[in-house]
TrEMBL record:
InterPro entries the record matches: NHR-like_dom_sf, Nuclear_hormone_rcpt_NR1, Znf_hrmn_rcpt, Znf_NHR/GATA
Source organism superkingdom: Eukaryota
Pfam families: zf-C4 (PF00105)
Protein name: Nuclear receptor domain-containing protein
Biological source species: Adineta steineri
GO biological process, alphabetically ordered: cell differentiation; negative regulation of transcription by RNA polymerase II; positive regulation of transcription by RNA polymerase II
Amino acid sequence: MNIEFRTKPGRKRKTKDGDICLVCGDPAIGLNFGVQTCSPCKAFFRRNAVKLGTIEFQCRGDGDCPVTSESRRQCNCCRLAKCIRIGMDRKAIRTDDQRLERLQLIETNRQKRAEQKVEDEKSLATNNKQIIIRPNGLLRYSKTYSFSLSSYDYTLLTNIFHEYERACVPHTYKEHLNMPVNETLTLHKFLNASSNMYIGFISYINSVPEFRSIPVDAKMLLIKNNVQQILRKNSTLIMKTITPDLDRDSPVFLHIFPKDVYMSMRDTSIALSPFVHDPMLMKLFLITLMLSKYLNVEYTNYHIECNDENITRNIFAAQNIYVELLWRYILSRCANYQQSVHFLTSLITRTLYSQTVQVKLNKFMHTIIPSQNHQLEPIIKSLWNPSEENSC
């Protein structure tokens, strides 16, 4: 079963220009019942999802009618089926009492904000000699900050965990490490043996709906720009958690890579090892990295840029969802706020070190691969020979 994890059902957010309804393709107004939709599809789902089990929806066609902005009114059965298929949540539909309660809560909060604003203005007037600028949102910290994860956060993290187990865990380095170390062991054989790990990780990242909703060309750019960096971190996670007995110098790796390159790669794995034993941290961190525009610390001819501002904003918004979840998770795992900051800083620092090691690895790979290019499997060839002409 392919588990998909979604952002919080029922929570709205302001959309950017270019966001589309995932049901019919019209411009979206925000996240409705957990999915990005337009206003008509939001209203349609609210009206009809509550009728499931009380009336029977029937399709006059073959059960697979197209649902577009032009055809969405032609078949309620297929339209509702598509709403459910893409993840719209019936449980997020509020009853009349719940809507009234929410409106009352909104009004109460509005009054509290207005009262707080008046108090802040009075305080500023009496203390105008000392003005303190505090950042908003995630960067603001107070003693009342909540360190707990919501029930939906736990559900989301559980789904991420199980999806990683399904897609990535079956593909380890055992095949690589059992290769005979002789003159027949070449770089292209080693890389071709990694193709299943690559496919498994792409399957994992494609389960993220925010990633899947990115246009195909932009997704390919993210993969080509980032996957080399991410696969090495994923390899560290696989090696440490799936095959811990293999934490030693491998004759296979030493045969394939120059000693200085291998030692740098091993040092990277050692640097990240304190983080890989947490059941969730790296699995979640890999998602945030894949939603980065470009992870390489060295600007090269292989860097492919996305010039569409709307797509770039959508990618950034998607990344923010998982960055915030990562931060809440770290807060919940650490004893206090200061320890959380130290923990995240350490993770970022070691990740940057890993990125500098990738520069050394890339230089070696781009020296050797041209002579073995014709022997690489297509999926590996696309990974190490990115096209310079792609754009979005």
